Amino acid sequence: MRTNRRSWLAIAALLALSGVSSCKKGKSDEIVIGHYASMSGNTAHYGQDTDKAIRMAVDEVNAGGGVLGKQVKVVTLDTRGDSAEAANAVTRLIDVEKSVALLGEVASSLSLSGGRVAQRRKVPMVTPSSTNPKVTEVGDHIFRVCFLDPFQGKVMAKFARENLKLERVAILKDVKNDYSIGLAEAFKGSFSALGGKIVMEQSYGQGDTDFSAQVTAIKNSDAQAIFVPGYYAEVGAIARTAQRLDVKLPLLGGDGWDAPDLFKIGGDALNGSYYSNHFAPDAATPKAKKFVADFKAKHGAEPTGLGALGYDAAAVLLDAIKRAGKTDGDALRDALAATKDFEGVTGSITIDSARNPEKSAVVLEIKDGRAKYAATVNP
Amino acid sequence: MTRWLVRVAVSTAVVAGIYGIGAGVEATMIEYVQRIVLIAGINVILAVGLGLINGTTGQFSIGHAGFMAIGAYTAAFTGVQLAPALSGLAGAGALSEAVTFNLALLAGAVMAGVAGLLVGIPSLRLKGDYLAIVTLGFGEIIRLLFNNTQALGAATGYFGNDPSGLPPYTSFFWVYLWVVVIVLVIRNITFSQTGRSLTAIREDEIAAEAMATPTTRLKVTAFSISAATAGIAGGLFAHMQSGIRPEDFKFEKSIDMIVMIIIGGLGSITGAIIGGIFLAVTLELMRDLQEWRLILYALLLVVIMIVRPQGLLGTRELSLAMFARKKAPSKP
Amino acid sequence: MSQFIQQVINGLSLGSIYALIALGYTMVYGVLKLINFAHSEVFMVGAYSGFYAATFLGIDALDQSGQSFPLYLALVVLIVAMLVSATLGMTIERLAYRPLRNAPRLTPLITAIGMSLLLQNLGMLIFTPNPRRYPPILREVRFDFGGVIVTNIKLTIFAVAMALMVGLWFLVNRTWTGRAMRAVSMNLDAARLMGIDPDRTIGKTFAIGSALAAAGGILFGLDQITINPTMGTLTGLKAFVAAVLGGIGNIPGAALGGLLIGLSEQLVAGYISPDYRDAITFLILIVILILRPEGILGVVRQEKV
Fold first, then answer.
1. CATH number of domain containing A214
2. pLDDT (tens digit, 9 = 90+) per residue, B46-56?
3. Do B287 and A78 lie within an 8 Å CB cutoff?
């Protein structure tokens, strides 16, 4: 009897758990935009930052009366940084939440997973910050508002070779991260083509915390700088490790560095390093300055490049809905494809025939624990 | 002769039934729900297969995600290589797709089964938690190997040659046809002479050995079959997902499988089926809870283990007779 | 050559952290025959307790003004973290493992995995998933020996780890508590007959193991610069491998195993490829379990029928 009661208790608990759900229906007087992002898990800060900026862009449009006479609603679903979950989330955004268009994912692998679903269902998707070339190759409904890894790699190679006059560089890449691998490849190709030499290639895995073996190996090569195309947490720790092992080489990197926490972790060990990014808060256009100020006022922190791209992705999408005059998938796709000279926070955006923007990149120099504008590199 | 005919008739009816239900599901349900239904089917395959080794035989594997990965990668790769040859042979169309897909799945199952054999032979000499930790180690090594294999896309994952990813072969019909096949196979093993021997190993390995049960051979066989079913599930997953990454087969995936069989009851096939479906539905329903979701999930696991460690059904099977007689039948 | 010596020094300091964590696994396995998966999260919570304690004691202001953190406060941070983790370890034992004392051996194992998941996800909720820089409770001083860099941090890690391990050895071999622990680990029922309260002894074992893990967490933070809520998973698993390598249930074995794993990781990463660092550690686990499950220093125990 006792076990019987216990089993019923267990069944009841399970049923109660599966009852935790909510039902939402899209109302006809609003336009729903779906956002899928890592809101939990260990890449949550990327998703959360992007989501804040997307909501800012949408709130501004809603305050001005919305688009097509309707208010815009953003529905955000969590992907937990998992590709199967990303596909689930996108399917649900389309089928249940009735999204007319999608924004999403920072990580390219998740944009690929979600993008394939969006493409099959003919729902336009704009990814704010997936820089892997493969993402927009998925199909004609997939767009992006950021530059691509090959371009970014070329930018840093050019900057290292021409501005810094470097000849020998070591690479320390994250092999668990396709972004890092792609960027390292692009840098390697361009830097060699410009007459430089890659003297050593070392690697680590995302989430690693010990880099002393790699840095020690690089110390014993004759490199003049280390290209570290990774995410900020590891980059900060790598900088500290280098300092600790008395390696006085500048680090070079890409937009994965862009986070306020980079300086908290790396501190003065980062001084004299350079990275490429989508925008520089201190050399921004009036529009970008306003965005930075608004974001600071609302969230109490400076936005990252990811945030700025999230804002731009939402703004480009809303502009396309306005120009299309309707929210039908194909019309929206055509309007997105026709985006020309759109003034965004991260610069002027013109979508080319491969659904990528033609944009310039900026290079930032780290001085006294802050990133300062150093150069603009055009495509 | 007539028995044979009856069997053919029943099988045909079952296949037609799955096909009919599949057509119905695809016509009436939104894709989002269909996806959950597919995931539930794949979960059932994983849970029933894992149940054979963890439940019936009592040898705990906590690294089955590795075998799922081997199945997924093998099936995806084989499918991509076979598709042009077969469509050249039989013409492009549903038939050549079906043949390609099932050959790919079988290749995945064979590779996973062989891997299970290779892992099982040395590991199954160990018992209990030592075995568990060795399977965990193997699972992680398999994933790290895929992570470092450039030909299969390394960390980026494998998506075939088409930018739109692997062909979406996985449909209701194929998933549930495989569910039926695998449930029948596992059921027939469990309730056969071999199955009793496996249960004997679970209850008391030394006594079983004393009764001249070839324990090592049986354990390795069960382990290999269980790995092969995980391989089938991996192949179905790969072609549903249109691409796979090493990250899809982390340790957490193995935990998911264990949760499925624990919810239903270790050593119960019907329990595993219930657990597989439950997990697919619940995790999706709890998506809105965001970071609380995994906390509740972990809490559920701990509470079940403390309150009812044998799961909902224990080693019992759910059957219609159970309801008719209002009393659980004793285990056959 | 200087590169090799550098890798060895780094390996030994990483290894002594593994050793501290491995002790917790080994002690719990000794008394309960349970792989306490939640131990890796106790280690993580220890690191975070140290983080918050140091922040509370005003390290940020000191750091910004270039002053170093007083040594006695660093000691306070260490003790606070050890107390928090010890309490957490005992609570986990009380809530999740004690009710399962007589269950089949795999039931507590699954519960332990569940507890580990639970604590990790709670950690992400409370501490946020963002990696944090560990507060510099020790100001770094570098010594250069002909290209080989040794920092006072590496030396401290080694010294603290060794001191704690020697202390533990005395506790286990020279005190009544230690004698009770050894008795429980040999035979719980017989120990009960000798008037030892097994529940209390097991509780103490968890407390001590968890406190050592917290010390490991603080040293880890100092050594590795950043911490995050998932830091325990891989580190814990490697520490467990260290415990198995040395001979599970054996305290000097855990120390030896930890140092060996740390060294092997650093040398594999430096001379073969960092990509295979984790894979080789798991391979060591498998090979040792299959060829010599009792570990390097372990004693073969005949299984009773």
1. 3.40.50.2300
2. 999 999 998 88
3. yes
